[in-house]
Every structure is written in C-alpha cells, then in structure tokens.
Amino acid sequence: MNIRRLAAIWAAKAAGYACKKMGRQGVTWAGKIALKIYPPILKELAGEVRKEIFAVCGTNGKTTTNNMLCAALEAEGQKVICNHTGSNMLNGVVAAFVLAAGLNGHIDADYACIEADEASTKYIFPEIHPDYMVLTNLFRDQLDRYGEIDITMDILESMIRTLPKMRLIVNGDDALSAYLAMDTGNPCTFYGISRQVMKNETNEIREGRFCKKCGARLEYSFYHYSQLGDYLCPKCGFKRPDPDFDAYDVQVGDRLAFRVEDRLLSANYKGFYNVYNILAAYAGVRTAGFSGEHFNDMLRKFNPENGRMEQFRIQGAGVILNLAKNPAGFNQNISAVMQDKSPKDVIIAINDNAQDGIDISWLWDVDFDLFRDESIRSVTVSGIRCQDMRLRLKYVDIPSMLEEDVETAVRSRVKDGTGNLYVLVNYTALFSTRNILKRLEGEK
After folding, report:
1. Of the four listed, 162, 290, 303, 330, which is most buried by Cβ atoms within 10 Å?
2. Mean pLDDT of 121-137
3. What is the per-residue pLDDT across 284-331, written as a single tens digit (0 to 9) for each?
C-alpha cells in the first residue's frame, strides 16, 4: 500500500472527526487535505468500486435524488458510497471516498452515487469515469458564478462527450436537458410525466422557450412548472421524447403518489417537484438492472435530510426547513408551503456569500405574491440580505418582520406563532440554520 495514500486517508478522517466535534461540517476540508497529500487518491479509490458509478447533475433536486438513489441501491442489498451531505465540488467528492475508505486504505463498495456540481464536472468526471449520469433539470442559477445557462450546458456537453459509453438518465420534460442528451449521441434513458397534473398559472421564468436545435419558439401543450412540460418545435420537429419511465395518476397533497410501470409509488413528502426526484431515482435503479421491488420500502424509510423538507419539533411547534436557491426552486418551495392550508408562519433567510452567488437579483423572479394568503399569519425576513428580501415583499404588498439573526427569528415564531413554521433558506444559510434547529429541538 502506498504510504502517502494511507497518510491522506488517515489525515482526512482525523480532520473530519475534529470538525464534527467542533460542530462544523468539515467534509470539504477532509477532501482538500487528502488531495494535498496524495493527488491521485480519487481516481484510485473510484477505480475500486466493484460495479458501477452514478453521477447526479442538474440545477435543482440533486441532493434528494442522489441520496434516494443511494438508498434504493442499498435496499437492493448493495454497498454504496455517496456524498450524502451535498458537498458536490471536487473536495466534497474526494471526501466521500476517503471517509468511506477503511484504515487499510481501500474501499468496500459495489456502487457509488456521486452528486456533482455542473461546473465541477470537468474536475470530477475525469477522475471517477461515471457509468451513468442522472440529469434532473437545467434552470438559471447563480449568474455571477455560472453565467448564463448556455455556459453550464457547454461544460456538461464537453464532459459527456469524453465518456461516450456513459448512459444518460434524463428528465425528458425539460427541453434543455433533453436536447443536451440527444445532441451528445450518448445512450439515453428518459423519464417524465406525460399528462398535466395541475394548472400552472404563475408567471415563472421559462428557460426553454426557444428550440436549442433551430432557434424557433417552442410550442407547449402544457407546463408542469418553469419550462418543464410537453413541448414541440414547429420548425424542425424537435419534441419531448417519449419517456421510458412515465409517471401517471399523479396525486399531490399531504402525500405524493403516482404509478410507473404499473407500480404504485407513494411517499410522505410535499411538493410536486419531489415526483421528479422520486422518478429520477426509480429510473436510475431500474436502468442499473434492478427490479425495483424494494423501492416502496425505501420510500417509507427515507428521510430527506440536509434541509430538504426536513422536519423538526421545537417546544411543541412543527418546523420544516427547506433549501431555496434560485427562482424555479423557490417557486416550487412556495407551492409546497401553500399545499398546507392550515395557519402557518414563514421565515425567509437570504445570504449573499460566495457560495450563494453575490447577485441576488433572482429574488425578483420569484412569485412571492403567492404568500399573500390568509393562511400565512406572518413572514419574517432574516440573513445577511434581509433588507433586500423585505423590500422584495413590500413590492407585492406583503408585510414582514425583520430579524437578521436566524436563531432569534426562530425562537420568536416558535414562542408566539401558529405552531406551524416553514423556514426557507438559501445555500450558506442552510447548514447554520439546520444546526440551530437541531440544537433547539434538543432543548427542554
């Protein structure tokens, strides 16, 4: 065994343990240290995966889909490496492998499920050589970091073309994702929802309005949300592909349920977007050759942690934490909140750190006017850019309370609110807010 590789793994494990003891996430530090000591470590450890490697990419839904796919493979009796925390850049991916390795420097895994940041695929894919890539969707996200969506598509296409045998498992309802997949020439599996589930009357930004093949305006028979729907180009004939895994009889409410391949899938989640997350994970496990007979058992046990509709109980109040980091994702979060017809309070925490993107103009593309409903008893704005969030709400005549400190805001709403609290946060507010909620949950 290479001594430097062993040293890298031991040092990474020590760093991860120390950060955990201090209440810090520490995952990316573990990966950074391992790479510094032994640069080839990711390629070598990925090469020890006995069967196949999945990469999960896309603007929204990566973490939930990746963790669900991992759980589905484990339900089939497989040993799986996964970056569960959502640390999806190079250091986070390295950490997933080194922290899963034994003290002997080797890993024991049949599969790996790796969530990969789209811009970071150029560093990750050459090291892990995925056998499958799940592509959830492509929306506008963090303009100051990614630029326009064409830049993200170009990065993904160049990486996909370096792996011509990698099978793409793609949301066919997204014209951008479908075009990208078809254009690469890689083998493709598509999933989607062929029938309209609910009327979409919001004024959402629709990224896929024009055909990527010829530039003509796409015609939609319906939208599910944002640009996801049933589309056709009247000029060149580009159209939504027939899905290999088609969800039908979709039920949305306190629970989600739908049928696919004559199998009823049901989960105790909210938010129509979670139908796509579940369907993507199902398509992944089926494409890998498993029957999926244990998939419903997995759904019953699966807990979407890490701030994805994560539930807490604090002094008798129910608290739900959810990540919202771009217009499409935030609109779906709002839709999920409004499915709950009971009285509720809302806290919105917005930061503008480097990982969030310092350009927060995207807030003006979110349909916050849907919160102008009698069931919303209070809205509190928090985080570094709380004043900007308060101004945004003022423009749709929604009064709000301002409290920059998230913990103070939560304590106030738990004490004097409805007992039903939703906390919507963007990226860098997520980890600290989750720690606050877990600590408050443990208080007597």
Report:
1. 330
2. 98
3. 999 999 999 999 999 999 987 677 888 999 999 999 999 988 888 899
**Tokens encoding 238:** 């580009």
For 342-357, the pLDDT digits (tens) are 999 999 999 998 777 7
- The one-character DSSP state at 431 is H
Summarised one tens digit per residue, pLDDT across range 4-61 is 999 999 999 998 878 776 666 667 889 999 999 999 999 999 999 999 999 999 999 9
Burial class (CB in 10 A: 0-12, 13-18, 19+), 218: buried
Catalytic residue chosen out of the listed positions 154, 359, 373, 405: 359
Could you give the dihedral angle defined by the CA atoms of residues 354, 357, 363 and 366, in that order, rounded to the nearest 10 degrees? Answer: -120
110 flagged as catalytic = no
Residue (of 200, 73, 64, 218) closest to 132 by Cα position: 73
Give CA separation, 102 vs 13, 227, 284, in Å. Answer: 10, 45, 27
Give all strands (DSSP E) within 148-253, no chain letters. 167-171, 188-193, 219-225, 228-232, 245-252
Q: Which residues pair with 382 in a beta bridge?
A: 349
CB 225 within 8 A of CB 197: no
CA distance 325 to 288: 31
- Alpha-carbon distance of 275 to 61, in angstroms, equals 11
Give the Å distances, CA to CA, from 439 to 314, 403, 422, 442: 9, 19, 17, 5
